[in-house]
Amino acid sequence: MSTLEEHIDISVPLDTAWECLHRAETYPRFLEGVRAARSEGERTRLDVEAGGRTREFEVRITDRGGENVMTWRTTSGPTLGGAFSLLSLDDDHTRLQARFEYEPGTITETFGGPKGFAQAAVIERGLRSDLQQFKELVEHGG
């Protein structure tokens, strides 16, 4: 299993960032490839464009609220997982750390694209872009 971690500092209080992370309907606005998202209790259904077509994935989200950590793992589709961790820097600034866990072969089979180092570089750029999109969304009241 490969793991990638990235972080970004956001100019909002921790509670504001935490709330936005928990609104599934905002996921298409900051997660590349997600076309639609809806919560169903502890499960979230994502319509994701993968390999030139839209596929539905089910994700189980678990909160460790006292630690400000939201973990996720697919329960259908490819085996993927990760976590979002929030750290209050001060009253108006928060660090969001994202961890993404994946099997390189699964990514290629599901989404297509490059393999090896090139795949890792594409995933890293994608994660950085998603974090930047989240920052813009949450800082502008989304």
TrEMBL record:
SUPFAM superfamilies: Bet v1-like. It comes from the Bacteria. This is SRPBCC family protein.
